[in-house]
Amino acid sequence: MFMTSIEPSLSRRSLVTLRKRLAAMTLTGVVVLMFSFFFIQKTLYDSAVHHASAELEATAYRLGSMLLQHEDIDLQRIVDANSAITIGVLDEQLNQVQGFIPPHLVDDLAEYIAEQGKESDSLQCVHAQQVMILAYSKLDQLDRIVVAFTPRSVLLESWREAIILHALMFVMAMTIMCGLAIWLWQRLKRQHLRAINLTEHFSETENTLSECGCAVLGWPVNSTDGKLTTQLNWPEILGPTDKTIGPLMTDFLDCLSPGSRAKLLDPLVNNIWADERIGAMVDLRVSANTSQRFYLMAQRLTENDPETISVLLLETSAEQELCHPFETYLHHTPEPSIAVDQDGLLRGFSPALEKLMGPGVQGIIGKNVFNLFEPEDQQIAMSVFDESSRSQITGDGKSILRIRDHSGAVRWLSWHGIGPFNGMIFASARDVTEFVENANKLRTTLDQLKRSNEDLEQFAYVASHDLQQPLRMVASYTQLLKRRYGGTLDQEADEYIDYAVDGAKRMHKLISHLLEYAKAGTNDEFSEIDCNLVLNEAQADLKAVISQEHATITHDDLPTIMGDRIALSRLFQNLLSNAIKYRRPGVPPHIAITVEPDPVIGDFWRFSIRDNGIGIHPEHAQRIFRLFQRLHKDEFSGTGLGLSLCRKIVEQHGGRIWLDTSRPISDPGTTIIFTLRVHRPD
Question: Which of 351, 393, 506, 659 is the most buried (most CB within 10 A)?
Answer without folding.
Answer: 659
